[in-house]
Amino acid sequence: MKNYIKTTALASVCAFGMAANASAAKIDDSALPSREEMWEMIKLQNQEIQNLKSRITSTEKKVVETDKKAEEASNTAQKVQNLAPAGGSAGYGWWENTSIGGYGELHLNKGSTKDEIDFHRFVLFVNHEFTDDLRLYSEVELEHSIAGEGQVGEFELEQAFLEYDINDYNRARAGVFLLPVGILNETHEPPTFFGVERNPVESNIIPSTWWEGGVGFSGELGEGFSYDVALHSGLNVPMTGGSAYKVRNGRSKVGKAQAEDGAVTGRLKWTGYPGVEIAATAQYQSDVTQSMDVDDVQAGLFEIHTDIERQGFGLRALYARWVLDGSGAEALGRDVQEGFYIEPSYTFEIGDEDEFGIFARYNYWDNEAGNSVNSDYQQVDIGFNYWPHPDVVLKADMAFLNAPAGGTDDEIANLGVGFAF
After folding, report:
1. What pTM, to 2 d.p., does this model score?
2. Which of 112, 153, 213, 356 has the fewest CB atoms within 10 Å, i.e. is most exposed?
3. CATH number of the domain at 100-420, out of 1.20.140.10, 2.60.450.10, 2.40.160.10, 1.10.3720.10?
4. Is residue 380 pLDDT above 50, yes or no?
């Protein structure tokens, strides 16, 4: 840059000299500037050169500052890019691949054994995709509106697991997740099923909603077949009291749960025809008392179901059976616990988006089926669902309960409102 300045100055002086010589050839000596005037002109020329140098220096400084700002902007863009999910562009962050959803339901029950109104549950989903192959699913639930010491409700973590795509057809998961069993255990948002309350067979026998902690694999096998297999924490049933050896009371919900004896669950499902699902699940646990019983209480669950929806007609049917191998369970008749239900339905449109559906359901369950005495419950439900929007439902039904000896028969009117988003 200094050489440039010197060259510019020299050129200016030469140009001035040449102009002076040319002028001298055409004019007489009296027209030439005096020595003092020449000196003033040289001083002015020198001032112009100094001004030029100053402008060049200023320009160099601005270029350096611009380069520095460009580098800082590039570094900032890279930091933002690092926060963005894979495949994103600068300006995107982790929030772009995070989604929120949930559901809730309010119930009114009127009967001789049950007369209450209850905001049964409010659930929030928070899911996030780290990459195209790795994602998080989570679900927290508040039951019965209010939780805390001495309160009727509970605040629970129902799901929190990572899922990774091994390839296009197989996935792995690890964390807390819903077990692949039954119809309602994995899909139980209010708009997805008939009836205000969840059916008693999947509540008392399976027992929904049921989650455990562990690892699992799932995938497609072709021709409409898919599989699920999971190795996870197991039940821990009580051994005394009115709930002794009942499977529903063995859920620990992965809260400082005993991990002496885990369990394995596997499911095979077929959905090869539109609107048709047929599935079977089996589970085995070496000891459902977590080695607290003097005998190992081995337990096995078998469940099979079908869920059909075709041109407005629907049919759900399910059978589930537990077998517990232990003298304590056998003495109470709870070495066998089983149940089934069948639910036909019909749904039709009553507007641009509105739908109306009617259903009937017969339920049978027995948590003491190992006894020779009558200990089964039977319940008939009839009612309707009205969907003003696919994710909003109003429900009404009647439940006619026939209890075994020592129980109480009842007729319960149920009203409910539910939503999902």
Report:
1. 0.77
2. 112
3. 2.40.160.10
4. yes
